[in-house]
Amino acid sequence: MSMSFGGQSTEDPSTMRGRNWPCLRQFGVFMENHVGALHELLRHLERHDLRVMALSIVDSVDCAVVRMVLDNFDHAKELFDLSNFTVFETDLLGVELSEDPQPYVRICMALLEAELNIHYTYPLLYRRKGRGAIALYVDDIDLGMKTLAEKGHRIITESDLLDDDEFFE
């Protein structure tokens, strides 16, 4: 779908996503902070064959935001659109951890050199060739992706999350 703004044609961002979208999509689910709320959400995802690849919770006394990356963005988006959950989306960087003895330090140094702030990070349930991965939210996703790729880091795409080649071995 094409749109026109001030005489210039642009692509609708929702139609530009593809299987090899270069970053991961995080769902933020706003929930009441009460016993069983997280279980309800996870059971809902499980019933629809979605696998949680990363999970982080930011809570307060009355509410919580569950940050999660799921194995199939398109299916999850459709499910959340049809649900009663309050959801927002955010782009994240997925980065495979290198064989370096301090892979987090290498990632942080690369982003520091580019003067990018890391707002938060958490591990991904990802394992390929003995390597794990992390999800990162940074000031500028495009610059972060470019910087990390230039420094030799492997960026994880959404299609990588669907490939279970070594996860269950």
Structure report:
This protein is of the alpha+beta class and 169 residues long. 27% of the residues lie in helices and 38% in strands. It contains five helices and nine strands. The chain has helices at 37-47, 73-81, 103-113, 141-150, 158-162, and strands at residues 2-5, 8-11, 24-32, 52-59, 63-70, 86-96, 118-128, 131-138, 155-156. Strands 3, 4, 5, 6, 7, 8 and 9 form a seven-stranded antiparallel sheet that branches. It is globular. It starts with a strand and ends in a 7-residue tail after the last helix. Residues 1-20 have low confidence and may be disordered.
Largest sheet: 7 strands, antiparallel
CA-based shape: globular
Secondary structure category: alpha+beta
Mean pLDDT: 85
Strand-residue proportion: 35-45%
User: What Rg do the Cα atoms give?
Assistant: 17 Å
The count of strands amounts to 9
Element order: H for helix, E for strand? EEEHEEHEHEEHEH
Q: What is the helix content?
A: 25-40%
- In whole angstroms, the N-to-C terminal distance is 42 Å
Note the quaternary state here. Answer: single chain
Please mark out the parts with pLDDT under 50 across 5 or more consecutive residues, or reply none. 1-20
- Our count of helices gives 5
What order do the helices and strands come in, and which of them pair?
Elements: E1 2-5, E2 8-11, E3 24-32, H1 37-47, E4 52-59, E5 63-70, H2 73-81, E6 86-96, H3 103-113, E7 118-128, E8 131-138, H4 141-150, E9 155-156, H5 158-162
Antiparallel strand pairs: 1-2, 3-5, 3-6, 4-5, 6-8, 6-9, 7-8
